[in-house]
């Protein structure tokens, strides 16, 4: 498959470096804006703190060409949010 050839070559290395730089910049700016971010390499997970706000933010960012998904109940249980950094035993159990 051509995509694997691209990823293995110099172009793939350049693309990976670009994704890392963009993720670092995004995380820096989101942190500066006061968002709590989950530690990660290239993906960026944050906590908007409110399901309605998360949905509104996701819609506005998508309109700007930034693919964002706002997770809330029933994907996340009511009154309980969980992520790998917050509950490693549960994460390990799910592997």
TrEMBL record:
UniProt entry tagged with the keyword Ligase: yes
Major enzyme class: transferase
Keywords from the named record: Acyltransferase, Ligase, Transferase
GO molecular function: glycine C-acetyltransferase activity; ligase activity; pyridoxal phosphate binding
Residue stretches making up the Aminotransferase class I/classII large domain: 11-90
Signal peptide: none
Keyword Nuclease: no
Annotated EC: 2.3.1.29
Pfam families noted in UniProt: Aminotran_1_2
The protein, known as: 2-amino-3-ketobutyrate coenzyme A ligase
Lineage: Bacteria, Pseudomonadati, Pseudomonadota, Betaproteobacteria, Neisseriales
């Amino acid at each position: 498959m051509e995509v694997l050839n691209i990823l293995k070559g110099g172009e793939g290395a350049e693309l990976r470096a670009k994704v890392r730089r963009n993720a670092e910049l995004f995380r820096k700016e989101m942190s500066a804006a006061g968002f709590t971010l989950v530690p990660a390499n290239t993906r960026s997970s944050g906590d908007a703190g409110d399901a309605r706000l998360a949905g509104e933010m996701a819609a506005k960012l998508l309109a700007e060409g930034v693919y964002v998904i706002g997770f809330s109940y029933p994907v996340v249980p009511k009154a309980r949010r969980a992520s790998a950094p917050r509950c490693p035993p549960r994460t390990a159990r799910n592997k």
